[in-house]
Write a structure and sequence with these properties.
217 residues, 7 helices, globular
Length: 217
Amino acid sequence: MSAGSESVIAAAMLFCVGGSGQALAQTVNNLPVVQAVVKTTTDAAAVVAPTAVPTASVASLAADVAKEASFLQSNGWPLYALVDKYAAGEPLNDEANCVAVAVYHEARGESLEGQLAVAKVIMNRARSGKYPTSWCGVVKQPWQFSFVNPRSGYMPSVDQSSASWRKALGVTRLAVANAVQTVPEDCLWYHADYVAPSWGRRLTRVEKIGAHIFYRS
C-alpha cells in the first residue's frame, strides 16, 4: 500500500459513523504509562490505525478535509481556529471516539497543543508494536489512564454539550487527519510535571507542554 493510500484510509476513519486526567505512570510488561509538543506543519499524511477499509466516497471526504486543514494552516489559521472549525463534522467512529474521550478526560485543562499531543501519543502507541494495536485498546489497557476502570475498561461519560467536548472532537479530527504535526512517532510516554516516575530516567525527554512532560525511547 502506498503512503498516499495509507493517509487517505487513516484520515477517512474519522468519518465512518459509529459510537461516541492524567494517568500516573504504571507499567505493563515493563512499559511506562503514556502521558504527550506540538509543531505546526502543512503535511497532511495521516496516521494509520486499525479500521475497516472505508468506501471510496468516505475516503474522498476524509482526504478533502485533510487537504483543507493543511491549506487553512498554511494560510495563517491558528490552531484554535482549526479546532473550532473541525469541532463539528461527521460522527467519529468507535476508534476515533476513544481518542476524543481520552483527550477530554486526560487533557481538557491543557492547551490545545497539549490536547493534540495526548491524542497523537495514543496513536503512536497503537502503531509502535509495543502496545495494543487499536486506539481503543491503547486507551483501555489496564492501569494506563486513570479515568478508565482498569478491570472493566469502562470509560465515564462526557458532557457532550460542553465546550471541552467540542474541543476534544476538533482536536481528534485534526490528529487523525494529521493536519497539524505533533510529537514524533517514537514519543510514547508522558507524565504530569508534579511527579517524577523512575521510568523517566530511562527515556529521552522530548519536550514539556503545559503540565505534561513527554518522552521517547
